[in-house]
Amino acid sequence: MSVDDIEGNPDLIVTGGFRSVGNYCVIGHPIAQSMSPTLHNAWFDDKGLGFKYVALDIPPEELVLRAPALPFEYSGINVTSPLKRAIMGFVDRIDQDAEAAGASNILYRDRETKAWTAGNVDGTGFVRGFEEATGAPLFGRDVLILGAGGAARAIAAAVALQRPNALMIGNRTPETAIELAKRVGATQALGLNDRIIERCEVMPDLIINTLPPIAEPFFFEMKLDALPDQAILADINYHVKNPGLLARAESMGLMTVDGRYMFLWQAALSFERWFGEMPDLEIGRNVLKM
Description:
- By secondary structure, the chain is an alpha/beta fold.
- The protein folds into two domains: 18-120 and 263-287, 3-Layer(aba) Sandwich (Rossmann fold), CATH 3.40.50; 123-258, Rossmann fold (3-Layer(aba) Sandwich), CATH 3.40.50.
- It has helices spanning 36-47, 63-66, 70-73, 96-101, 122-134, 150-161, 174-184, 196-199, 244-251, 260-275, 281-287, and strands spanning 23-28, 52-57, 76-79, 93-94, 106-109, 116-119, 142-146, 166-171, 188-191, 206-209, 232-235, 255-257.
- It is built from eleven helices and twelve strands.
- The chain has a six-stranded mixed sheet with strand order 2-1-3-5-6-4. It has a six-stranded parallel sheet with strand order 9-8-7-10-11-12, with helices on both faces.
- It is globular and about 60 Å long.
């Protein structure tokens, strides 16, 4: 039976029909800043697919009205803030990556069952991007993640699999940091303040910022002096020009990783999930001016 199943009954599969073929999108709110359409359309052109990828602005309060129709309109979807957790209530299936993260950044059709599936490639995208940017593994590092939203959840779950020495979560709402720390087996949860680094049980040698751009003023107050010379600072907000955290780190002579690396790799992994093959990463790097 094909039904509009928004309760996740695995015996009832949402089918898209012909209207969805060739249509892809990213959903979130706001969404105008997203470069996903530019990147994916460049890959579609390279493959000669004739498909179209667009940005679709869906405020959180409208998701319950819009989500049931999405699998009938699109063959694949990327999901960004603030919908990464809520979207998981409108699918047939949640894969192991989204389950581990407690958030989803991609919707796709399972190749065997055709189930409308929530997945997550944010975490793997960060790991691959970090390795490309630094030439170094995450194994054995002392990691502090700033934020506990959808992207942070995926990154924390993926970083935990790389067997860091310490994994610490800092968030404005301590209860959310504690919940995420328990989910991924992190070693410490902290409230967010300008002396968070000094409060870490282990001095971090990698800080990953997942906080939204509205938090930029915080990074000009955050105390960084205690960081070791080998520390690396990463910011996943690829659309923010001159992120404050990275600018300050560079002025101290520390290595930085900007958000384009994670963005490129999560987009490429999304493409692979939809089509079964990786796109040309060099085209992606040219689009993102890397």
